[in-house]
């Protein structure tokens, strides 16, 4: 997957060199390209923002600079040289649609993502309108809080999407067992996990996990997922698809 990120802080993305994402890049699974937005600024001060029309606090990012930057990156085309498939443009903003595991899976199927993280009060809205008529543009929020800029949101999204790409995780099963994974884990939180030693500070690992009985262990894990979801995110249980519940699930609930 190719990922382009246009930002006034390209250095913010250094963590993408580390751990799983770093390895995915080394192995050529993730092709991440960082671009400095100010490279497209026209004045000596490399200004990228201006005061908002209508007044109010803060500054708004200028449309011409974003427009030229996005045009230039899109014109570079895909690495294979196929310019017929434009990128999916993702604009992080607290007023966007919620980013969920389902959206992460949707993005993981795309060959090319273009992120345009904003600072200040955001990007002039005409930029999203302009590209919305040419590319697929998603305004996406990673949660109901306001960050200092969209860069941290891009890190979150790239990591959530990157780990879903084939060959990134050692064990593909860990993706289907994830909290929120579609299928059996849809709208469920993953339950507790344990490793050796069997007793630590007097606390024992649940006996069932040492039994070697895979059927019973799977059942126990599912029950724990229900318990944890009920305790921490009861509103998720209302969204459970009743078609995925068996008789035992119904008793636990
Ligand atoms: N930029 C600022 N806050 C954000 C949020 N919650 N999600 C995505 N982008 C943001």
Automatic annotation (TrEMBL):
GO cellular component, one term: cytosol
One of the protein's GO biological processes: tRNA N1-guanine methylation
EC number: 2.1.1.228
Pfam families noted in UniProt: tRNA_m1G_MT (PF01746)
tRNA methyltransferase TRMD/TRM10-type domain sequence ranges: 1-238
Residues noted as binding S-adenosyl-L-methionine in the record, renumbered to the chain: 142-147
Reaction(s) this enzyme catalyzes, per UniProt: guanosine(37) in tRNA + S-adenosyl-L-methionine = N(1)-methylguanosine(37) in tRNA + S-adenosyl-L-homocysteine + H(+)
Main location: cytoplasm
Keywords: Cytoplasm, Methyltransferase, S-adenosyl-L-methionine, Transferase, tRNA processing
Compartment list: Cytoplasm
Gene3D superfamilies (alphabetical): 3.40.1280.10, tRNA(m1g37)methyltransferase, domain 2
GO molecular function: tRNA (guanine(37)-N1)-methyltransferase activity
InterPro entries reported for this sequence: Alpha/beta_knot_MTases, tRNA_m1G_MeTrfase_C_sf, tRNA_m1G_MeTrfase_TrmD, tRNA_m1G_MTases_N, tRNA_MeTrfase_TRMD/TRM10
Subunit structure as annotated in this protein's UniProt entry: Homodimer.
Family: Belongs to the RNA methyltransferase TrmD family.
HAMAP family assigned: TrmD (MF_00605)
PANTHER family for this protein: TRNA (GUANINE-N(1)-)-METHYLTRANSFERASE (PTHR46417)
Function: Specifically methylates guanosine-37 in various tRNAs.
Protein name (record): tRNA (guanine-N(1)-)-methyltransferase
Phylogenetic classification of the source organism: Bacteria, Bacillati, Actinomycetota, Actinomycetes, Streptosporangiales
